[in-house]
Write a structure and sequence with these properties.
The protein has 414 residues and is of the alpha/beta class. It has helices at 18-25, 34-47, 65-73, 83-91, 108-116, 127-140, 178-187, 208-226, 252-263, 276-279, 312-316, 404-408, and strands at residues 4-7, 10-13, 16-17, 29-33, 54-58, 77-80, 99-101, 121-124, 144-151, 173-174, 191-197, 233-235, 269-272, 283-294, 299-303, 322-324, 333-338, 347-354, 362-365, 386-391, 394-399. Bound molecules: ligand LLP.
Amino acid sequence: MDFFTYHNGELHCEEVPLSRIAQEVGTPVYVYSQRTLERHAQVFTQAFANLNAMICFAVKSNSNIHILRVLAEQGIGADIVSGGELYRALKAGIPREKILFAGVGKKADEMEYALSEDIFMFNVESMEELDLLQATAKRLNKTASVALRVNPDVDARTHPYISTGLKENKFGIPMESALESYRYAHSLSCIRVRGIHCHIGSQLTAIEPFVDAFVIIKNLVRELLSENIPIEYIDMGGGLGITYDQEKPPLPTELAAAIAPHLKEVPCRLILEPGRAIAGNTGAFLTRVLFTKDNGSRKFLIVDGAMNDLARPSLYGSFHDIRPAVVREGNTEVVDIVGPVCESGDFFAKNRPLPPCHPGDILSLMSAGAYGFTMSSNYNSRPRAAEVLVSGDRYRVIRQRETYEDLTRLEELS
Ligand code: LLP
């Protein structure tokens, strides 16, 4: 559920008309609803409250510090994958004891930064990484708390680019070598084994793959405990899907109910790393129609947003619902909505039925709160979009639109 609704034919974010934001802040622009964000955070937290789960938001999905701050106020921690995300999480006031460091390619300087900030835990994905973490911790005279990411070889049944729990994927340690890897980790002087981690993919719309993975992990945990390798935490990663189109993903309460009986069998605390399920439907991307074009066989709406701003349709062929900020009367037309970037892959939708649209109209691409701005770039030297946070009948710009000076600021101009 979200707070983007039409009142009298005008699309609003909470009580603010989107066309007003487009007018005052300009386009393209990301607009987030604070009420939706808080609600999603609460729904997720409450669903897992009985299981005493720790919820760490996947910062990669939306890393604006104002968004992270709202989540911090809801008691949510952070799942980070880089030094940059650690910097943002700390700046947003997320407590260090709620920060988890994941990722398949951490560098020594990032480990050093995280160790010096005393974060909660590292999710380690290979023995080479473990050796580097041991050496780095030793140099700093620190102990690193660690979970090993295990790859359970479960098919998440999602887009191949965001499926991560199959043997063929680059992620985690294969099941066959998990026990041996844990024994090794446990033998290292500056490594404190505390947990196990797995993340099988993103935008999952079925519950079975989560449960299948959990059972595999649970059985491994039993084996580890019988060897006196202490596993206090089971981190099941993120991955719960959202509705972009017609999908019917499980509710957080359904996921909690499916996992609960298995969790009871092991003396571990659950950790979750949701990104999309919390942030996805809290955001919309606004873009203005520049031109309409009819080449005889197809009709195009050429808009001022592009694949550099919102990459998901180009990259994964993803569907985003597209709604006019103000609905015009008239017959629906089937159109391609495309951006100004010089690539045919620069589209937001193809063959999409829409009410009539004219140059100057504002379109809202829905469900753009996760993996929207964070995946944007400056391709074609396009300054990145502004970001706006709405609360009730007010809004504020939480990231300024980039300027041309910003584009060249780090280049030697002399
Ligand atoms: N934990 C780990 C270790 C992850 O790799 C991810 C996402 C998450 C948590 C959060 O997953 P979520 O709850 O958001 O599904 N750019 C793609 C999604 C990439 C997901 C990468 N990993 C997209 O736009 O669909």
